[in-house]
Write a structure and sequence with these properties.
The structure is a single chain. The chain has 146 residues and is mostly helical. It has helices spanning 11-34, 40-56, 64-82, 91-95, 103-137. The chain has one domain. It has five helices and no strands. The mean pLDDT is 83.
């Protein structure tokens, strides 16, 4: 059975769609656990926006645009936290007991969470962009090149 490639989205877009489901689930879980935090509101809004953006990006031709904006916000937020004067910490302090210890340890954890978020967001965003570009420039089989 031969499959019509004109009906299937490009591989990058299919990968972005596939990855968007578990990534959005992780962001939704992250948003939910923020409700137990003293400074929950900005983190909840960030993770809720990431959830929606990750789901929408590969399903919308320009979905990579808000994804890039959210990546920029993520980088800026991490830079602001990092500029607050962090002291070095050990791996044990970072990954041990997850209750709030010191503001310094909490800031390191926040930067780590933002870094992981940036990795997930940029992966789906780049795949969505590649898929949108490929579908925009590749003519359907049998169509003449422009």
């Amino acid at each position: 059975m031969v499959e019509n490639s004109a009906q299937r989205p490009p591989i990058a877009n299919r990968a972005a769609r596939w990855l968007s489901v578990p990534f959005s689930a992780l962001f939704a879980l992250s948003a939910a656990v923020q409700l137990n935090d003293p400074d929950w509101l900005p983190w909840f809004v960030f993770y809720a926006a990431a959830t929606a953006t990750v789901l929408a990006a590969p399903r919308w031709e320009r979905g990579w645009v808000p994804m890039c904006a959210l990546c920029g916000i993520t980088l800026a937020w991490a830079a602001v936290i990092g500029s607050s004067g962090l002291e070095p910490i050990t791996w044990g302090e970072l990954t041990g007991d997850l209750r709030m210890k010191t503001l310094n340890v909490e800031r390191h954890r926040e930067i780590g969470g933002l870094g992981l978020s940036l990795l997930l967001l940029s992966t789906v965003g780049l795949l969505a962009k590649a898929g949108a570009r490929t579908s925009a420039i590749a003519p359907a089989p049998g169509e003449p090149l422009a």
